[in-house]
Amino acid sequence: MSPQYLVVDLAGVLFRFDHAHRLQCLADVFALPADRIDVLLWRSGFGADCDSGKYPHTVEIRDRIRAATDFVGSDDDLDAAWCSAFRPDHAVREALERHRGSRRLALFTTNGPLEQEVLLRLYPTMFDCFDHLLFSHRLGHRKPAPAAFDTAAKQLGARPDDILFIDDSAANTDAARAAGWTALHFRSRGTIEHPLGT
User: What is the pTM of this model?
Assistant: First the structure.
């Protein structure tokens, strides 16, 4: 039998992802150099801590960003800049809907509470076709850690061999295969359309 769960990544699959663009947007909003922001919020480990669930509340995350950058502007400006790396790929979403067949559809992403809150608010139609939204901050593990895949499968209530996973990261697809999942390395919309075509 073919896998009955179709699980896809967010950044690089459902959304185009551009971290450099985000750094520039944050630099404009915070009035700091982009490389300084990268050091304060990503190379420091703060972003990874958000993704792994160390800071479960968006209020605390915003407060910590403000403390690190001395930002005194609005939450809306902070949120928009923080999530500016993500641009929805409507063609990929449409392809998923066309070719999912009877499979249950899940999103499995390494992202934190602020991304989850803001992206669902800004782009609700990108998520309304999903049966499950698996964000790493809720799982307590980041891809490609083996525990992330084990926890995701348990959340889905699926056997590993019943999951087809699509991600743009070779490290993540390798980890998925090691966990017993079927995995495809996403390169373009054709990755979805050709193997899943019905």
Answer: 0.93
